[in-house]
Specification:
The structure is a single chain. By secondary structure, the chain is an alpha/beta fold. 42% of the residues lie in helices and 18% in strands. The chain is built from eleven helices and 13 strands. Strands 6, 7, 8, 9, 10, 11 and 13 form a seven-stranded mixed β-sheet that branches. A six-stranded parallel β-sheet has the order 2-1-3-4-5-12, sandwiched between helices. α3 (70-82) packs parallel to α4 and α7 packs across α8 (231-243). The longest helix is centred in the first third of the chain and has 17 residues, at 40-56. The protein is elongated and about 65 Å long. Bound molecules: alpha-D-tagatopyranose. Alpha-D-tagatopyranose (T6T) is lined by residues 35, 39, 41, 116-117, 175, 230-232, 255-256.
């Protein structure tokens, strides 16, 4: 102990605060601001972030709003900035409306990394545009995810094709905009017998998504399928199919994998779920923030994976582990 104390005194006298062999004395605080707090996707992301924080001795603060909406997310962000964390990991709820609020964090010297969703074009640190200041974007490849959903839905419907639509949240969210774009591009390029009807926007309200399914089916008795572009859109669209008595006739492909997806796949209500890896997003978010704060350079873009869950693999533990935590 005496030796260690003497070593610390020497280190301090020559201006070393974190000499090799001595514990890092600065404990970093990283704030994680999700799109909304009560969403299994962000609950799972938080778990991954906490695992990295525990491994690195980082203090993780999780603070969010009850709805996926910039009007309620911006005040949470402002309050977080006032507490001066070392870094903010945030899933911006709008591509443009979060630019100025996040600039304030950047100008206050807080490292900004976006997780899941992006601001501007999602191309950061380019020196171009007014929304390139975040250090990194860590997320699924959402265009690819949309394409994967299209392939799964086309396979479920079969060769005859027919009418489908996208159940989506609202325009302006990077993730769900990209999923819809990927889905439509894939259908257009590779599945000419499938007609994509107008997108139905549900404001992240599963009840609204269920009513919309029934309304679209009432107008199109030959409706063949629906792509739910996020957890609540898919849950609602599936409920709508069930309420309409069309389980198995109207095919459902879901983005995201909450606990209920297992039953819904087993019962045949949902044909496939594109599970994201939110724990990976949270883990690499904290690791990237820590790397930056301790003087390392970090990639501006980290892409995480997907697992497609269907009836054939839903019981496999290596697949089931990607079902989100509640
Ligand atoms: O799909 C995720 C997330 O990727 C998206 O940005 C918003 O919706 C979810 O949180 C699921 O509800």
């Amino acid at each position: 102990i005496l030796k260690a104390a003497a070593g610390l005194a020497v280190a301090a006298s020559i201006g070393l605060t974190a000499a090799p062999g001595f514990a890092q004395d600065k404990k970093y605080t990283v704030a994680l601001i999700p799109g909304l707090t009560t969403d299994a996707f962000y609950i799972t992301m938080r778990k991954g972030a906490q695992a990295a924080a525990d491994a690195l001795g980082v203090n993780l603060v999780f603070q969010g709003a009850p709805e996926f909406n910039p009007v309620v997310q911006v005040p949470v962000l402002d309050a977080t900035i006032a507490r001066k964390p070392d870094a903010i990991l945030i899933a911006p709820t709008d591509k443009t409306q979060l630019v100025e609020p996040l600039r304030k964090a950047n100008e206050a010297g807080i490292a900004v990394i976006t997780v899941d969703t992006f601001i501007g074009t999602g191309q950061y640190q380019t020196g171009k545009g007014d929304a390139d200041f975040p250090l990194a974007y860590i997320a699924s490849d959402n265009v690819l995810g949309g394409r994967m959903a299209a392939r799964a839905l086309a396979t479920a419907i079969g060769d005859a094709g027919g009418k489908v639509y996208v159940s989506n949240v609202k325009p302006g969210i990077s993730t769900t905009d990209q999923r819809e774009a990927g889905f439509k591009a894939e259908m257009k390029e590779n599945f000419p017998k499938i007609t994509v009807l107008d997108t139905q926007f549900n404001d992240n309200d599963a009840n609204k998504a269920a009513s919309q399914l029934q309304a679209v089916y009432a107008r199109n008795s030959d409706l063949k399928g629906v792509f739910g572009a996020n957890l609540f859109s898919a849950l609602g669209a599936g409920n709508g199919v069930q309420q309409a008595g069309q389980t198995g006739n109207i095919k459902v492909v879901a983005f995201d994998a909450p606990g209920s997806i297992v039953d819904n796949i087993q019962s045949g209500l949902v044909d496939a779920a594109i599970a994201q890896h939110p724990a990976e997003i949270g883990y690499y978010g904290v690791v990237s923030a820590y790397a930056h704060l301790t003087g390392q350079s970090i990639p501006t873009n980290i892409g995480t994976g997907f697992t497609v869950i269907n009836k054939a693999n839903v019981s496999d533990p290596n697949v089931a582990k990607y079902v989100y935590s509640e």
